[in-house]
């Protein structure tokens, strides 16, 4: 191969390596985020209430009242 072709092949290899490293870095960050979310889900609530239960306080109800 001539000099120009080798330079092009080397540049393409560098691009491919950079894309691979970027993909690995993104996958690692996604795994860390998933682990953090899983750890947050495993921790018990400090107030002793579940998050998915509706709040029965009047402030949580509708602010629009009927005129009657």
* Alpha-beta classification: mainly alpha
* Helix content range: 55-70%
Low-confidence parts lasting 5 or more residues at pLDDT below 50?
none
Largest sheet: none
Shape by Cα distribution? elongated
Helix-strand pattern? H
Approximately what portion of the residues adopt beta-strand conformation?
A: under 5%
What is the CA–CA distance across the termini?
90 Å
Structure annotation, total helices: 1
Mean pLDDT: 79
- Rg is 28 Å
Q: How many strands in all? A: 0
Structure, explained:
- This protein is mostly helical and 68 residues long.
- Helix content is 59%, strand content 0%.
- The chain has a domain at 1-40.
- The chain contains 1 helix and no strands.
- The chain has one helix spanning 3-42.
What is this entry, summarized?
Residues 33-46 have a biased composition (Acidic residues). The protein is mainly α and 68 residues long.
């Amino acid at each position: 191969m001539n000099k120009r072709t080798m330079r092009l092949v080397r540049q393409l290899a560098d691009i491919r390596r950079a894309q691979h490293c970027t993909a690995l870095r993104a996958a690692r960050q996604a795994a860390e985020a998933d682990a953090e979310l899983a750890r947050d889900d495993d921790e018990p609530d400090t107030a002793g209430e579940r998050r998915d239960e509706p709040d029965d306080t009047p402030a949580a109800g509708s602010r629009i009242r009927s005129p009657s």
